[in-house]
Amino acid sequence: MQVTLTNGTKLPIEMHKVRIVQRCTLQPVAHRLAAITAAGYNTFLLRTRDVFIDMLTDSGTNAMSDNQLAAMMVADDAYAGGDSYYRLADACRDVMGFEFCIPVHQGRAAEHLLAKILVKPGDRVVMNYHFTTTKAHFELQGGTVHEIYCEGALETASTNPFKGNIDLNKFQALIDKFGPKKISFVRMEATTNLIGGQPFSMANLRAVSAMARKHGIPVMIDTSLISENAYFIKRREAGYADMGIKEIILEMMGHADMMYMSGRKSTAVRGGMIATNSKVLFEQVKAWLPVYEGFLTYGGMSSKEVEAMAVGMREMCDIEVASSGADLIQYFVDQMVAAGLPAVTPAGGLAGHVDAIKFLPHIPQSAYPAGCLAAAIYLVSGARPMERGTVSMDRDKQGRDVFADLELARLAVPRRVYSMAHIDYVVDRLKWLHAHRDLIGGLRFVEEPPVLRFFFGRLEPLNDWGTKLAKAFEADFGPEQ
Ligand code: F0G
Fold first, then answer.
1. Ligand 1 centroid vs 323 CA: distance in angstroms?
2. 132 lines ligand 1 (CB under 6 A)
3. Tens-place pLDDT, residues 446-481
């Protein structure tokens, strides 16, 4: 919740109290230099014991509620027919308005099954923007991904409240070019991850859905961050200020034929789901579920997580839960902007993002500016970002780098985990880094997996810039920080 202070400032105050805590450690800069070197300058390969503030992702790292933890204790561990599943299906029906609910072990498992059933070689898959695993699964099935984002979606400094919108003219042009039968579905990602967690509006979803339905093209929503997108609609779109999060979500789902989610985000568990009102689609997915995931009533998830997901799905409709990440991210982004840092604006739904091309104008995309910035941020703060740029794109068939549309260092804000002090500290270290940005150099791959290379790839700094940056930091702050 944002409360207004006497002096007019908005404070993102926590609407929960913290009763279980986990110790974290700020290792000194020399230790961090050794750790990032051992990790091949890839923040995925750091060990958490070397990380102070873990901003790699909000996936599976949000704080669960007391009621979620309590629900885990009454989970029904039956292999088949477990009550936990029926509680999840009830929550899905109530919150999402979908009759058929299929649990899977995480979001990409849903993408795998949906790709297997809906995408044929030569098909076109249309979306506001890709996500890494989404694209991989649809392409592995022989599909081609078309991103039809709205004008201005890739402008990192913007006031457009709905950069996740689809451009209807581009959608119509694809329908005209390929014919509706060649388009597997149109996918809208709720708070579009790779462009900075940017939402789409209800008006846009309504229009996309009308166009798709006119041509018999199914509408799919990636609901991994659905409560955040609904919260932005409430705050930013005319006509929704007085509506509850649940009503908004139900209206959104009314425009869709199916949804899938990573349950690791809005619902704060470790799992995933596909849901639909189509019995045909349900039967098709169900048939493959035991091959890849497990029986229908657990779908590869622990039954404890199934129970917690049922609770999390209802809790994400509470405005104080839906806003818990978004309001702190707003504060984070406001602080970055006030400090003159090139943050992605408006604030999005999962992280504070820094535009690495603007932060490091001297580093060409071929030397991976977002990767350099992510490693440098860890080095000077102990906060762990994620690279969201060219390192996160795989090479083309000729072995050439595919330059990403955006080069972002993403500092995720797991919900109900970190405080304003953590955010203030990170912004301060970003400020110091910005003043010393000339010390940062490029990176090159030394080990490179063939698919989703960002997970396990290893890089090395050109001209040993990490050591120089660590020395400058130590000169200003001493050896203990
Ligand atoms: N869709 C979206 C929009 C996502 O953000 C993610 C994961 C997935 C699908 C895949 O789900 O991880 O449960 O298999 N995003 C994580 C992130 C990994 O860090 O943003 P998953």
1. 19
2. no
3. 999 999 999 999 999 999 999 999 999 999 999 999
Contact 332, 411 (CB under 8 A): yes
Q: Does ligand 1 come within 6 angstroms of the Cβ of 387?
A: no
Beta strands in 316-421 (DSSP E): 351-355, 383-384, 386-388, 408-412
Nearest CA to ligand 1 atom 11: 107
In this structure, what token pair is assigned to residue 45?
A: 């390969």
Owner of token pair 């923007």? 129
* Cβ count near 73 (within 10 Å): 8
Active site residues: 79, 131-132, 222, 265, 388, 454
pLDDT band at 269 (very low <50, low <70, confident <90, very high): very high
User: 338-360, pLDDT tens digit by residue?
Assistant: 999 999 999 999 999 999 999 99
Per-residue confidence (pLDDT) for residue 281, from 0 to 100: 98
User: For the chain, first and last CA: distance in Å?
Assistant: 32
Which residues face 103 on adjacent strands?
273
Q: Which residue's CA is the closest to the ligand 1 atom numbered 16?
A: 59
In the block, residue with structure tokens 């933890």: 69
Q: 106 CB less than 6 Å from ligand 1?
A: yes
pTM passes above 0.85 = yes
